[in-house]
Predict the structure.
Amino acid sequence: YRIAKELFPTRYHELVTFPKIWYVKINGAAKWPNFTITDTPENSKQDIHIFGPLPSRKAAADYISALNEAFGLCRQQCLIDDPAKAASCPYYQMGDCDAPCLGKTSRQAYLCRIQHAVEAAGGSRQEHIKWFDDTMRSLAVQMKFEEAQRIKKQLEHLKHLDDPTYRWVCDLNE
């Protein structure tokens, strides 16, 4: 880059380009933490975790979606602090959300899920995969097939994070 800048001072930026790199960020100190997409990996606070690098904005969005689906996190952050609006959340109505905004899940339990999602996003997924697998099998033995199917879908979303697209993703704090 420096050589190109030295040799071609007026048009080096045309000759040498770097792709934009994306990251996923979560602020653990927020009232209701959630994963967001960013293109700047700056970390000014200790409670902020940044995961990356990701090759595209779509890959970052898919990464967040897989985490949200795997751990049952809120996908409608605009509704989470407004219980009157939260009742109309499509994810709650479809049964895909445990509705922490409506008090169906305690805030502490929800924050515990967030912590598990942060651990999985950082690369330590094996213990979570094992837990999902054991839970799914246990539910199947108890003949709770619908619940086992829900856990199986969550497990598939979690395993999606092992896709080659995400091979370099890690917690940048580490």
In short: The chain is about 45% helix and 10% strand. The chain has a mean pLDDT of 86.
